[in-house]
Every structure is written in C-alpha cells, then in structure tokens.
Design a protein that fits this description.
51% of the residues lie in helices and 8% in strands. The protein has helices at 2-15, 30-44, 48-68, 95-98, 102-119, 123-133, 137-140, 197-213, 232-246, 253-266, 271-278, 283-290, 297-308; strands spanning 148-149, 154-157, 160-167, 173-181, 191-194. Strands 1-2-5 form a three-stranded antiparallel beta sheet, with no helix packed on it. Strands 3-4 form a two-stranded antiparallel sheet. A hairpin with a 4-residue loop joins strand 1 and strand 2. Helix 1 (2-15) packs across helix 3 (48-68) and helix 10 packs antiparallel against helix 11 (271-278). The radius of gyration is 25 Å and the shape is globular. The mean pLDDT is 90.
Length: 318
C-alpha cells in the first residue's frame, strides 16, 4: 500500500493533465512514450533514479493493458539505453550527512544511555542496540523477545512494521497508523543475525527492564512506559532529539544502518557477508549504497604515502 501511495503521488506529479494522460493507449508508439518521458525528464531536471520512478507508472499501466488484452505489447518497456546526458546528477550527500563517525556514534550512544536512565524511554535503548544490529527501523520496532536465541547467539529477523493505509471517498490512499506484518521488505530480509556479546547484553538488559515495569507477559522488545509497542515514529523522533541535543547533522535510523554495514566492509567482511547481514536482495545494492570510505584527509595521505613510497638516494630538499 505504501508503494501504491507513492505511485499515486507520481501520477499526480507528472501524468495528470499532461498531454499523454488522454492518449488512447492503443495508439501509443515506443517513440511517443520516449519523447514524452524525455520531455518530462528535462523539464523537471530528473536524475536517473527519479526518471525510473516516474517511468514505472506507465510501465505498469501498459503491463496491465497487455494482461487485459487491450494492447498486444508494452511500448514503454521497449525504451532502453537512455544516455546519461539526459539526466541531472543526483544530489550527493557528504560522508557526515550519511554515516556516523566513530566519535559521533560514541557520543550518541552515551547520550542515549544517560537519557534512558533519566526518563526510562526504551526508544533510546533501541537506538543504542541498532548500532550493533543495523536493522531497518521497521524491523527494529517489530522485534519480539522470542526472536532472540541466546544459546546459539542469533537474532531472528522475521517481520516488520509498516504504515497502514485507508481510502477516502475519492479513492485516494492516506496513511492510517502502523501495522506489523509477518514478512520483511524482501525474502532476503528474513535472516538470522549473529549477536555479539555486547548486543546480547543490551537485549537482556532491555528484557529485564521490561519485566520490572510490566507485570504481563512481555512480547515486544521495545515498549512504552504504558506497555505499548513502540513505533517507527518513536525511534525516529527520539533520534532527532539526540542529534539536536548534540548539535550534530540530523541523521536518521537509516544512517545507523549505513554505519553498521560500512563498518563490516571496513573490517574485511565480504560483500556477500554484508549483504546477508543487511538483508539485501542484491549485493550491488549493499556495495553501492552501504560501503563508505572514511574521508579522513590525514589518514588517507598517510595510507597512500605508505603504499606508494619509493626509496630514493637523492634529496630534493637539499
């Protein structure tokens, strides 16, 4: 439903009231589609990713028309090999906008522990723990006590929280709270995570904390003081407050996830190992979006100097 909401937004943004919206799809040729798509791309200065999001609507509509027997083939899917020169360069975020440096991560977790001890909000523990698990925020808040097998040192990722939606009288979708579903973002998201001793200690501490406050049987790992399961908003809003209190660049849970997976790369884990840990379908996704090099100028100069050094008898300085 969240994807349907996104597609609805794309239709409203690019297609509605456009010249192509009222075309008879039986008359649409591949070149018609291509020229219109490129015109929209240029006028809206789309990068390739946004172009693909925009094109996905016409792809799926014509797929449906093929299945329905209205047309024989999908002319939109015949559009291929669009040159990069047609697309704007995506806005690149700096390293510090995407990843928590070690000293910043330490400040975040220190503040989280202090705030938890002060007010008892377990969202702070969720932020802390996720620096060891690297979960999507929907996976994090959907964890149950029974997901942890301490004997075999694994955490089982089996479900996620997602936004629920409802239709209004005009048929438009609107967000309506959250729901937990018994599947993950993709089949590869269903995975067993190795638990470090630190991660196990924090999970056990969270479970013990819950039992001291809530007399009923504890099911969800992260609970409010009223005993209700925390939502994505609880984690995201708490992390925003932490960033603000530390006066650092605003970064969300996804930056924690990027930090964790990038650290695995930096410590010699293979692309496939990191892919499995992160629950990605494709290793290319893991490599492209989750592998970061620390741009520490002095350290990089030293590394390159050591790697490229050649002994030379002459001394230019003299």
């Amino acid at each position: 439903m969240s994807n349907a909401t996104k597609l609805q937004w794309v239709w409203e943004k690019y297609y509605k009231d456009s010249p192509i919206a009222n075309r008879d799809i039986r008359t649409l040729k591949t070149r018609d589609n291509k020229l219109w798509l490129l015109d929209v791309t240029h006028s809206n200065r789309l990068d390739r990713k946004k172009y693909k999001e925009m094109k996905s609507v016409i792809n799926m509509m014509l797929d449906y028309a093929v299945e329905d027997g209205t047309i024989a083939h999908n002319a939109a899917r015949e559009i291929k090999n669009i040159s990069d020169k047609h697309f704007d360069e995506p806005e690149e975020k700096s390293y510090d906008e995407q990843v928590f440096r070690l000293e910043v991560a330490e400040a975040v977790v220190d503040l989280c522990m202090a705030q938890f001890e002060k007010i008892g909000n377990s969202a702070y523990l969720g932020i802390y723990l996720n620096f060891y698990l690297g979960l999507r925020v929907g996976e994090l808040v959907a964890l149950k006590v029974s997901d942890f097998d301490f004997e075999n040192h694994i955490g089982k990722i089996r479900r996620q929280e997602r936004a629920s939606h409802e239709k209004d009288n005009e048929g438009k979708l609107h967000r309506h709270g959250y729901e937990v579903v018994n599947f993950t973002k993709s089949k590869d998201g269903k995975r067993d995570l190795p638990l470090t001793p630190e991660a196990e200690d924090y999970v056990k501490a969270i479970i013990a904390h819950n039992k001291t406050i809530h007399s009923s049987t504890v099911e969800w790992l992260f609970l409010s003081l009223k005993g209700e399961k925390l939502t994505k908003d609880s984690i995201n809003n708490t992390l925003r407050r932490v960033n603000k209190k530390l006066d650092i660049i605003q970064k969300g849970n996804h930056s924690i996830r990027k930090t964790v997976l990038s650290k695995l790369f930096q410590n010699g884990f293979t692309e496939e190992e990191v892919r499995q840990f992160g629950g990605h379908k494709c290793a290319s996704t893991t490599h492209t979006y989750y592998e970061f090099s620390n741009p520490d100028g002095k350290k990089n100069v030293a590394r390159y100097s050591n790697a490229l050094h050649i002994d030379c008898r002459s001394d230019l300085a003299s």
